[in-house]
Specification:
Blueprint (H helix, E strand, L loop, with lengths): L3 H10 L5 H19 L9 H23 L19 H22 L5 H20 L13 H22 L6 H5 L4 H13 L1 H5 L6 H5 L1 H25 L12 H11 L7 H21 L1
């Protein structure tokens, strides 16, 4: 019998309320593909469940592993309240297996018209993404506790999604697509770095070796300030190199970036919704800029 209360807990723990921010990354990949290919195939819709399932794995296991490690404060970790819906560890792993099946199944539907070699490439990409989503949280690797592990893992997860979107539309499987054509990708590192900085006291209980803990608050806060400055410079440079000034639209988020930095440097946990909003606005404006060229 279907337990709708547990499904509600799964939705809560998967943090689907952040859907628009999370999907803004593959949408950038879609717009890059449309710019180069001139169209977006219907099969692109099959990728959306793939990306949602990918986010679900990372988020729900993050909630489970941090809950079991007893390192989070429930008042500031809303996704942990999924356990109030009666979810158990076994239930969560069943949802993870379901998400993995969704990722492979819908990836096949999206790329079914591609060659066997291309499909193998796609499944390798998907497998890599699943590995990152699981071992970002799961011992013994628990990448989020390693030095620069959280930043690089989250960055690569979004690289996979931008590149897969671009590959579906253009057939170009280059791994460098996200690095070359999406200057805002560096802001994802900024995002997770702020999260680690704000939560550094809780993370110490988990034996974390994150940048704020290893290098100290002064070094981490300097990176939090300098990273978006670099991102804004790369955005402007991209608009000049590709002769599309509309891709400067994301620079309109500079006042919000300043506000977010001011909160993060004070380690105020209320900053979290604002840096998700910043990423969503930046990505959306960049996608609009690509389409307006």
């Amino acid at each position: 019998m279907i337990n709708f209360r547990k499904i509600q807990g799964y939705i809560h723990g998967s943090r689907f309320r952040l859907t628009m921010t999370l999907l803004s990354y593959p949408i950038v990949g879609m717009c890059l593909g449309k710019r180069d290919a001139g169209f977006v195939p219907f099969e692109y819709l099959y990728l959306l469940p793939v990306f949602m399932a990918h986010y679900s794995i990372a988020n729900i296991l993050n909630g489970l592993c941090d809950f079991e490690a007893k390192i989070d404060e429930k008042e500031t970790s809303n996704d942990r309240t999924m356990f109030d819906y009666g979810l158990t560890s076994k239930d969560i792993w069943n949802f993870v297996y379901f998400d993995i099946a969704v990722m492979y199944g819908f990836s096949y539907l999206a790329f079914s018209k591609f060659s066997t070699l291309d499909l193998m490439y796609v499944f390798a990409y998907i497998s890599f993404g699943i590995f990152l989503a699981i071992y970002y949280n799961l011992p013994p690797l628990r990448l989020k506790t390693k030095f620069f592990g959280a930043e690089s893992t989250i960055f690569l997860i979004f690289v996979v999604q931008v590149n897969l979107s671009y590959f579906l539309i253009t057939g170009d499987s280059s791994f460098s697509t996200c690095f070359i054509h999406f200057p805002g990708s560096i802001l994802q590192i900024w995002d997770i770095m702020m999260n680690l900085y704000v939560d550094s006291e809780e993370d110490k209980r988990d034996g974390s070796r994150s940048i704020p803990i290893v290098m100290g608050d002064k070094f981490a806060s300097s990176l939090i300030i300098l990273t978006p400055i670099l991102g804004c410079y790369l955005t402007y440079r991209y608009s000049v190199v590709y002769n599309n000034m509309y891709t400067c639209l994301p620079l309109l988020t500079i006042p919000l970036i300043y506000f977010v930095i001011s909160l993060a440097c004070k380690k105020q946990k209320r900053v979290k919704p604002y840096y998700f909003l910043t990423l969503f606005l930046y990505n959306t404006l960049f996608a609009i800029g690509l389409l307006m060229n």
